[in-house]
Amino acid sequence: MENVLRSTRITLEMIKWEHSIFALPFALTGAMLAAHGWPTLKVLGLILICMVAARSAAMAFNRLVDAKLDAGNPRTAMRAIPAGRLSASFVGMFTLVAAGVFVLSAALLNRLTLECAPLALVVVLAYSYMKRVTRWSHLVLGLALGIAPAAAWIAVRGSLAPRILLLTAIVILWVGGFDVLYACQDLEYDRKAGLFSVPASYGLEAAFWIARSMHLMMAVLLFVLLRLFGLGEIAVAGMCLVVVLLAYEHKIVSPRDLTRMNAAFFTLNGIISVVFFVSVALDILLRR
Q1: Which residue in 97, 194, 228, 247 has the fewest CB atoms around it within 10 Å?
Q2: C-alpha span between 23 and 147 (Å, rounded)
Q3: In this predicted model, what pLDDT tens digit does every residue of 220-243 receive, in sequence order?
């Protein structure tokens, strides 16, 4: 039992479960837009469980699939599986349990969430193979997180409205853009290992311009979203702050200086997602 608890703790550290904060605010935003306020506590709780379980399954599966690649990359060689702190069999079992919790939680929401659960799992798990087949794997990662608000909408309403897919597109561009930046750290290794990515395919300068373009398109869609859902001044102010934070993210990293990549990737993106959610939530709640 002690070994199981220790391995579980190491697994949670490995998958950085706390970084669920990237996707959770967008899922909660989708739920609040669907409910025109807070959904019921039951629905909200099940959405949170679904989000954490799906991300945990996806991240554990990614570490399992990429174990050999991680072992050969100096930046990732000390991750738990290549470092020998976790067995592949344990991580595989953790993945199955997390996926099972996700499907069970989806079943407790409504029929459509249950029917969509296998497709959602395919999307979030398939990302792990994308760097082997396409340089645009960054957008697949974006889709894996971007389905969260649409899934939350379905959880609340039991149906899908096309307009919530605009928020999915926003998340795809946001995540895709910062994943392009993050992949710049592995340019040389990706080329050596025969992996595909935007930086490995086009070089650092072009990768930064592609990431900037994605985030510029995201910024435009943010204000389309405001109009589409009839959001007011608080949400407008929040979106303006999100754009400022995105600009700052691009200011602190460059093709010639990647030393602050973790600050841009983890800290700033966490703040961006929280600002986005809080501004939309306050706007909805204060205008009811």
Answers
A1: 194
A2: 9
A3: 999 999 999 999 999 999 999 999
Tally the C-alpha atoms within 13 A of residue 255's C-alpha that lie toward its C-beta.
13
**13 vs 7: CA distance, rounded Å:** 10
d(CA 111, CA 266): 35
Query: Which uninterrupted H or E stretch holds 169?
Result: helix 165-183
pTM over 0.85: yes
3-state secondary structure of 108: coil
Give CA–CA dist 114/51, Å, rounded.
14
- Distance between CA atoms of residues 211 and 169, nearest Å: 15
* Other Cβ atoms within 10 Å of 189 Cβ, number: 16
138-148 pLDDT tens trace: 999 999 999 99
- Backbone phi and psi for residue 108, each to the nearest 5 degrees, phi listed first: -80, -10
At 257 the three-state DSSP class reads strand
CA dihedral 208, 211, 213, 214 (to 10 degrees): 180
**How far is Cα of residue 78 from the mean position of the Cα atoms in its chain?**
23
Q: CA-CA distance, 225 to 190, in Å (whole number)?
A: 36
Query: 86-104 burial string, b = 16+ CB within 10 Å, else e?
Result: beeebbeebbeebbebbbe
Cα distance between residue 174 and residue 115, in whole Å: 27
* Burial (CB count <10 Å: 0-12, 13-18, 19+), residue 49: middle
pLDDT of residue 71: 78
The residue written with tokens 């837009």 in the block is 33
How confident is the model over 178-191, as a mean pLDDT? 88
CATH number, domain with residue 282: 1.10.357.140
* Cα–Cα distance for residue pair 239/279, rounded to 1 Å: 8
Q: Which domain holds residue 18?
A: 2-286
**How many domains does the chain divide into?**
1
